[in-house]
Amino acid sequence: MEAVAKLKSVPMSARKMRLVVDLIRGKNVEDALDILRFTKKEAAVWLDKLVLSAIANWEDKLGGMENADDYDLYIKTIYADDGTMLKRFQPAPHGRAHRIRKRTCHVTLVVENATALKDGADAGDAVEVEEVEDAAVEE
Q1: 117: which DSSP letter?
Q2: Within a 10 A sphere around the Cβ of 12, how many other Cβ atoms?
Q3: 119 three-class SS
Q4: What percentage of the chain carries pLDDT values higher than 90?
Q5: Regarding the domain delimited by 2-114, which CATH topology (the fold level of the hierarchy) does it fall under?
Q6: Distance of alpha carbon 106 from alpha carbon 6, whole angstroms
Q7: 23: pLDDT confidence band, cut at 50, 70 and 90?
Q8: How far apart are alpha carbons 29 and 53 in whole angstroms?
Q9: Is the pTM of this model over 0.85?
Q10: What is the predicted pLDDT for the residue at 139?
Q11: By three-state DSSP, how is residue 87 classified?
Q12: Can you give the residue ranges of every domain in the chain?
């Protein structure tokens, strides 16, 4: 099972955000949180909150009774896209104006458990795969 968390209109360029996003892509959730807490970039603070939100979304989707520490959660997908851009002007010499672009970005994060759930859709899928493997071994 997977859960999604989105962060919209972060007042930072997507290029700066991607530097930190690339550090945690595909990592285990605990490892990703450790990496973010020791990264000296402003984007790490935003992403730390986003990962915690994704974990909470996963627990809530599961019914609220389960704890995420019992499962092997990892970051399946994470990407940063450009958001809206505020356009301003800065006075320049000789009566000119220079354009200033204040960029924003949107970040999407998908968290999934690496092991199958005990009872649920993912556990049923795992059983079907095992049955197919057993049939191939018997032949």
Answers
A1: P
A2: 20
A3: coil
A4: 70
A5: Ribosomal Protein L22; Chain A (3.90.470)
A6: 7
A7: very high
A8: 12
A9: no
A10: 44
A11: strand
A12: 2-114
The residue-averaged pLDDT of 69-80 equals: 91
Question: Distance (Å, rounded) from C-alpha 8 to C-alpha 108?
Answer: 9
Task: Give the contacts of 40 (CB within 8 A, at least 6 positions apart).
Answer: none
List the structure tokens of 44: 């790490």
Q: Which token pair is 23?
A: 């550090």
> Residues with Cβ < 8 Å from 124, sequence gap 6 or more?
none
Question: 40 φ, ψ to 5°?
Answer: -95, 50
Residue with tokens 């505020």: 86
* CA angle at 80 for the pair 79 and 82, rounded to the nearest 5°: 145
Place of tokens 């402003």: 42
SS3 at position 133? helix
Q: Does residue 115 register a pLDDT over 70?
A: yes
Both tokens of 5, joined, read 């968390």
